[in-house]
Amino acid sequence: MFAKGVAAGLALAIALPPAHAQTARRASLPVVRDAEIEGLVKDYSQPLLRAAGLSPARVEIVLVNDLAFNAFVAGRRIFINTGTILESETPNETIGVLAHEIGHLAGGHQERLRDQIERAKTIAVVAGLLGAGVAAAGAASGSGSVAGLGGGLMTSGGNIAQRGLFAYQRTEETTADRSALTYLLKTQQSPKGLLDSFAGLMRKNMLSGVSSDRYVTSHPAPQDRIGFLQTAAKESPYFDKKDPPALQLRHDLARAKIAAYNGGAGQVRRTFGRNLNSLPARYGDAIATHLAGSPRAALAKIDALIAESPGTPWFHEVRGEILMAAGRSDEAAAAFAKAAKLDPTKSGILEAAVGQALVTGGKPERMKDAIAQIRRGLERDPGNSTAYQFLAMAYGKTGDIGAAELATAEGYWEGGNFRQAKVFAARAQQKFRPNSPQWRQAQDIITTKVNRK
């Protein structure tokens, strides 16, 4: 993590102030799903995970729709804010952040942090009991000074526990920094992006603790951290290595999309002010025009980009979104199908989008195709809660109410609303033959216990 903040011992974070501590449960975070950005971050992280001895298939990267520069780990997941990508001018900067978080994951810091928190609690409780005993003895003897000493012991006990926990966190931060440098070296990537990210955060005063006492902070002092990185990073033979132009373009296209969805045309101009005629800037402008409610102008802009770069799947995806919003569902489905065909990551999101467009068209004769297409998407990406919503609508239009309610239950489950998931699963189960596959699927939802910690 790059700055302060631990969410009740459950998440290791960068630039996460204590006031915004998060439980790191997907249901409580503004998680965003996007095939383009997910594919990009996956390509960034996979070589690093392998270098760390971790299986990419067992680690999930989750995008959080927040413009703060932030990333953290929780369980087997790495959460990264879209703001981290937006503020990273090069792929290497985002890669450096991911390398650091993978250092936490590979080092098992989260599990050990839980142990340290329990230890800190024990210290605080013991000190509190000792202080209470001294205070009681002072009160019984009529000695105000002894009673005051007892109160001081109770207070200092909490401070000792807090300082011990913060010292542990600072050690783990340094360890994660060193691990990140190792992974970048193994994958023959520059550590300069990691260094640039720290320098940028220090300029914004996001790494500094509230107190000037460096021991009362959960992270090493910024200047100490950057000083170490400057020395170690410049020893890498890849320090001056630049990102490939094609990767830089993908990175900037993702930044343009994030800018458009979070700040419209104004944010796009602020992000690409030096080159508003670039492909990423015009991509962001097309999206912003669409979001502003001008489908004709947006379509003209995205069509111009497709003419210039017909093999870019994300231009076709945006074209599908524009057409679907304009009520041209069949054309939207064709655009999404084109995007899915060109997508090198084979994202289930795009596969499902084809069927979702057909559902919005409302034609009964297309619902069978819509169901099949959405199901293909869910096979690739079973966590797509939005796809389940459209699947439920498609089943509803065919009159299969049991399947519609079961799909609704699945959607609620994947979205983190477990109570509603169980309600709809129970309703669906009544419409299926006992012990049939659909009945058992509903039963799994009904009987699965949810760990809400």
What low-confidence regions span 5 or more consecutive residues with pLDDT below 50?
1-27, 112-140, 146-158, 160-168, 206-219
- Structural classification: mainly alpha
Order of helices and strands: EHEEEHHHHHHHHHHHHHHHHH
Question: Which percent range describes the beta-strand content?
Answer: under 5%
- Biggest sheet details: 4 strands, mixed
Instruction: Write down the overall geometry.
Output: globular
Question: How far from one another are the termini?
Answer: 22 Å
Number of strands: 4
Give the averaged pLDDT, no decimals. Answer: 81
Instruction: Give the spatial strand order of the biggest sheet.
Output: 1-3-4-2
Please tally the helical runs, counting DSSP H or I stretches of 4 or more residues. 18
Helical residue percent band = 55-70%
Characterization of the model:
The chain has 453 residues and is mainly α. Among the domains are: 1-243, no CATH class; 400-453, no CATH class. 66% of the residues lie in helices and 4% in strands. It has 18 helices and four strands. The protein has a four-stranded mixed β-sheet with strand order 1-3-4-2. A hairpin with a 2-residue loop joins strand 3 and strand 4 (77-81). Keywords: Hydrolase, Metal-binding, Metalloprotease, Protease, Signal, TPR repeat, Zinc. This is M48 family peptidase. One of its GO terms (cellular component) is membrane.
